[in-house]
Amino acid sequence: MHSASDPRVAIVGAGLGGLACARVLQRHGRSVTVFEREAAAGARPQGGSLDLHAGTGQRALHAAGLLDRFRALSRPEAQEWRLLDPATAAVLPQQGPPHDHGEEDRPEIDRGQLRGLLLESLTAGSVRWDRAVSGVTPLGDGTARLHFGDGGSEEFDLVVGADGAWSRVRPALSQAVPGYTGVVFVEAGFDDCDTRHAGLARLVGAGTMVARAGAGVLFAQRNSNGHIRLYAAFRAPEDWHRAAGVELGDTAAVRAHLLTLFDGWDERLLGFLRDNDGGFVHRPLFTLPAPHTWEHVPGVTLLGDAAHLMPPLGLGANLALLDGAELAHALVTASDVDEAVRAYESVMLPRSGEAAEDCAEGLDHLLPPAAA
Fold this sequence. Notes:
alpha/beta, FAD/NAD(P)-binding domain, 2 domains, five-stranded parallel sheet, about 30% helix, globular, FAD binding, EC 1.14.13.-, Flavin-dependent monooxygenase
């Protein structure tokens, strides 16, 4: 065993929650190693814009000592949320986004910018890139062995699975696997929006635009640097493209199919399906059972999507950040690792279970199953 005052902690996955956990641990003088299967920080795009809530994501960044830097990068004006009539593209009166919970302070930031902020805050060498994990074995004495894709292994006092939907750490705690929700998101992007795509930019406004009718929803959101990201959402079998005779890499065929699904919508809104830069990205939505729980296993725990994968309705990233900060705080303040993990899980599991149930209801409200 390592010294009780500085246990050996491995975090699997350099996403937002894992990095928040590492940052808070380091702020308190603790050592930690983050293992990430990607080759480098810029190996792939990090996704769209996130609204960080005061009671969750912003609270975690405060614990990480990064709230001021976040505020300097964030876009408060992008909290604007508008609902458009699919038939006319007119702006409708509405109550705000799903799961608003009355919070007014939810500035937006690109996921990539936020991840960069967290990465820059860590001690050099904290993240071991290109280090894929294949699994974890609890050793029965409170420690766990981390297995790597290259056949190597290392032992730790705690392995934290922060490795997302298809976590390699989760099987050490739970037999749950993500299940398909019946909802597909098809993503598209638009660059230089205020010049090349000015008409679409006016529809989106400063933040997020939503239009929905029957079995289809168009979400469009402002990102930084003049970029707009669109998600066309609909209910369909996971292999809908096969039944439709559509190759996912065939941009013209995907476009034609989407235009059929959204037939009858205002031509200005259909511009989001006609005029994108580049192709379409197919994103079927998967979730873990809600609530997802497990019997405590010494030496292993989970956070973020590895623990509570839920529909992308504004809660997942916020909860991942809070999970990471709270786990780190527990490790710093409890008398030993096992006490810390038990304390963390006793708060995180009920909170995430309730949030996941809320998000599942929110998804059914946005895209009613009967409309499929």
